[in-house]
């Protein structure tokens, strides 16, 4: 990105862990987490959808909880542990949520899928989804323009018990 940087603007040093890797980075105060991930770190699995926090395509996990990377300033993540879609799998072993999305055909074009999966993992971490209605409500911040919602709910519902077992 070739933005004009105001004279006197200072970069700030932040330290964080991204997908298990400790990083120290220099960021301008107005850099969003989304732009840091995509433009500085080439982690392009996190998608830029609306850039206004309305679609959820940019959802990542910050300390295990869901955040919209487009609304989060990178400097707010100093000291945080971040997980993007690139860090969800364990090497070649897919995360249970990824396997459930595949098994339930919970995507069509795939653009929203990284944010949907991160949001679903965050939902599981939060432990508040105990029914299909609760899953739908808790996932309502993630839009799918293709309309794969019923398959997404089925995938989340399938993966939740597996994730509860892993946390025990």
Descriptive tags:
2 domains; single chain; 168 residues; 33% helix; Ubiquitin-like (UB roll); 5 helices; DNA polymerase, domain 1; five-stranded mixed β-sheet
Description:
The protein is of the alpha+beta class and 168 residues long. The protein folds into two domains: 12-87, Ubiquitin-like (UB roll), CATH 3.10.20; 96-167, Orthogonal Bundle (DNA polymerase, domain 1), CATH 1.10.150.120. 33% of the residues lie in helices and 15% in strands. It has helices at residues 33-40, 96-103, 113-126, 132-138, 149-167; strands at residues 12-18, 21-27, 59-62, 65-68, 81-83. It has a five-stranded mixed sheet with strand order 2-1-5-3-4, covered by helices on one side. The N and C termini lie far apart (44 Å). The model has no long low-confidence stretch (mean pLDDT 93).
Can you give the mean pLDDT?
A: 93
Q: Rg from C-alpha positions? A: 16 Å
Topology pattern, helix = H, strand = E: EEHEEEHHHH
For the sheet with most strands, the description reads: 5 strands, mixed
Could you give a short description of this structure?
The chain has 168 residues and is of the alpha+beta class. It is 33% helix and 15% strand.
Topology:
Elements: E1 12-18, E2 21-27, H1 33-40, E3 59-62, E4 65-68, E5 81-83, H2 96-103, H3 113-126, H4 132-138, H5 149-167
Parallel strand pairs: 1-5
Antiparallel strand pairs: 1-2, 3-4, 3-5
Helix pairs in contact: 2-5, 3-5
